[in-house]
Amino acid sequence: MKEPTRVHLAQHGTQIFFYNNIRTNQIIYSLTRSLNNNTSLKQLPFLGKKTVPSHLRKDLWQPFCLVSFPRPSQGLIAYRRLREFRRLHETSYPLSLIKQSNGNLHSTKKRGKILMDQKANSVADLAAVLLRAEDNLLRIGQVKREADGETEQTEMDQETEKEMEKRREEKREKRKKEMREKRIEAKEKRTEWIRRLQKAGKKSFRRKDPQPPEQGGVEGVKISWANLLDSEFAQQWPEAVVHDGLARHRYTAAFPLKEQDGERRRSGIETADVPVELLPVSGGSSVPESRA
Questions:
Q1: pLDDT tens-digit series, residues 103-127
Q2: Going edge to edge, which strands form the sheet with 15-21?
Q3: pLDDT by residue (tens digit) across 228-238?
Q4: Cα gap 190→208, rounded to integer Å
Q5: Residue 137: Cβ within 10 Å count
Q6: 288 burial via Cβ count (<10 Å: 0-12, 13-18, 19+)
Q7: Would the pTM count as exceeding 0.90?
Q8: DSSP string covering the chain, please?
Q9: Residues 180-231: pLDDT tens digits?
């Protein structure tokens, strides 16, 4: 497995890759473009016989969507919440979901198929995560405005208009000074973090954002869909989120190439000459690469 580069470490968390199983509609979340067999298979719960594959097959798992965030902290928080929401879907589902119309439970095989289908739930969960981030930003702004309004109202009752204007001017100057100091401090921290990362080579460090991650909102978030119609699984999306299509290229199943007598021969069934672009997957497997 390749070691992560400095660029990958700096951008870790800015993108969340969704992969979909075309047979079962299972969904895998990944912070990297390449899927790892061990870590990816841990996301799939055991729901019965043959519900968890032994390895990822590149012809079954395809790109579903790509979510891009302006800051790594926003992506890491969204990734954690997506995993938590899906665990609830898999363990705290209503019994009516696995019951027949006559009240009897479905067979074990049927129940496994129903619970494995997390395609619609993953889209709804993504929308809920982004709406929650937007609500946090609006709530914080509202609390600040209310606090400022109460303070100004109290001061108005006690002081004259002239004195209040003077105090407002002092507050504005104080805020400007604090913002300048914060920008300088953030720039120094960023410079120090880059210097430490360059000095340590490929060793990773936890990046600290100057701005709290909960206050990031959804400004600058972009979702690239393999099929734009999949976004309709969610009832509502934040207005600031940008939806776009995910560029795809034709590919065929890759067969191992063998060198024999100076000629390259395909083992197995012959396929058409179509460009193949695959993503390496540790453990001897690969999945198709998407161009986002």
A1: 899 999 999 999 999 999 999 999 9
A2: 27-30, 15-21, 61-68, 222-225, 242-245
A3: 999 999 999 98
A4: 9
A5: 17
A6: buried
A7: no
A8: -PPP-HHHHHTTTSEEEEEEETTT--EEEESSSSPPHHHHHTTS---STTSS-SS--TTTEEEEEEEE-SSHHHHHHHHHHHHHHHHHHHHS--GGGGB-TTSPBPPHHHHHHHHH--HHHHHHHHHHHHHHHHHHHHHHHHHHHHHHHHHHHHHHHHS-HHHHHHHHHHHHHHHHHHHHHHHHHHHHHHHHHHHHHHHHTT-------SS-GGG-TTTT-EEEESSGGGGGGSS---TT-EEEEPB---------EEEETTEEEESSS--------EEEETTTEEEE--B-
A9: 887 788 778 777 777 776 666 544 444 444 444 444 578 889 999 999 999 9
CB 223 within 8 A of CB 244: yes
Question: How many residues are recorded in the chain?
Answer: 292
